[in-house]
Amino acid sequence: MNKIVISIATVSALLAGHVMADTQWQKDHPRREQVNSRLNNQDKRIHNEVKDGQITKAQAKSLHTQDHQIRQEERDMASHDNGHLTKADQHSLNQQENAVSHEIGK
Q1: Whose CA is closest to 100, among 72, 54, 73, 60?
Q2: Which of 40, 62, 33, 36 is nearest to 50 (CA)?
Q3: What percentage of the chain exceeds 70 in pLDDT?
Q4: What sign for the dihedral angle of Cα 96, 99, 101, 104?
Q5: Is the separation of the CB atoms in 84 and 78 below 8 Å?
Q6: C-beta separation of 36 from 70 below 8 A
Q7: What's the Cα-to-Cα distance from 29 to each of 34, 41, 43, rounded to whole Å?
Q8: Cα–Cα distance between 83 and 101 in angstroms, integer?
Q9: DSSP label at 55?
Q10: How would you classify residue 82: left for phi > 0, otherwise alpha for psi between -120 and 50, otherwise beta?
Q11: DSSP 106
Q12: Is the N or C terminus of the chain more exposed, i.e. has fewer CB atoms within 10 Å?
């Protein structure tokens, strides 16, 4: 019984470590990763709300357009700083994402 518990614990730890592992890009660009992760999450939320009938396809298109503009701005900002975002860049992008997020959750 102890061997089974230890085996389950070992497998769980390995899986958790695998899931938690970041790519080198994610490690090298944590601010960009955070901003893009939020954009990806918002994209999923938009799709779910259309699927559930909470928003129309036209509303979804407008929200996607806003998110695409934020993503392009993130890329433009990063291009000015050797591929990285400054804290100020990240803050500005997060404020814009907050505004879109509130529109999704209406």
Answers
A1: 60
A2: 62
A3: 78
A4: negative
A5: yes
A6: no
A7: 9, 18, 21
A8: 26
A9: S
A10: left
A11: -
A12: N
Q: Which of left, alpha, beta for 56 (phi over 0: left; psi -120 to 50: alpha)?
A: beta
3-state secondary structure of 53: coil
Q: What is the DSSP letter of 54?
A: S
The tokens of 41 are what? Answer: 């999450």
For residue 28, CA distances in Å to 9, 84, 105 come to: 31, 9, 32
Tokens at 25, concatenated: 């890009």
Contact criterion met (CB below 8 Å) for 100 and 67: yes
Q: Quote the pTM value.
A: 0.75
CA torsion 30-84-23-100 (nearest 10°) is 60
